[in-house]
Write a structure and sequence with these properties.
The chain is mostly helical. It is 90% helix and 0% strand. It folds into two domains: 1-43; 45-79.
């Protein structure tokens, strides 16, 4: 056991360090996924990029419509 392990155990609960270790692992996995996705986007051709932009715009339009419909349902529910 190193000196830092002794100090670590003395002033914080082991559950804190377990949670910190889990979060660090989660962060590393998310970072690796981000890097992989970015590399995939960098490999897109100009035509594929335009298709992706069109699909993203359409997705945003649909989400906005869904949000509006949900808000209308909520307003109706409150009356």
């Amino acid at each position: 056991m190193s000196a830092s392990d002794v100090q670590r155990a003395e002033w914080l609960e082991p559950a804190f360090w377990d949670r910190l270790d889990q979060l660090e692992g989660r962060h590393q996995r998310a970072q690796a996924e981000h890097d992989s996705a970015r590399r995939g986007l960098e490999r897109l051709t100009a035509g594929e990029m335009e298709e992706l932009r069109r699909a993203w715009r359409r997705y945003c339009e649909v989400i906005a419509s869904l949000d509006e419909a949900t808000a209308a349902f909520e307003a109706l529910r409150r009356t």
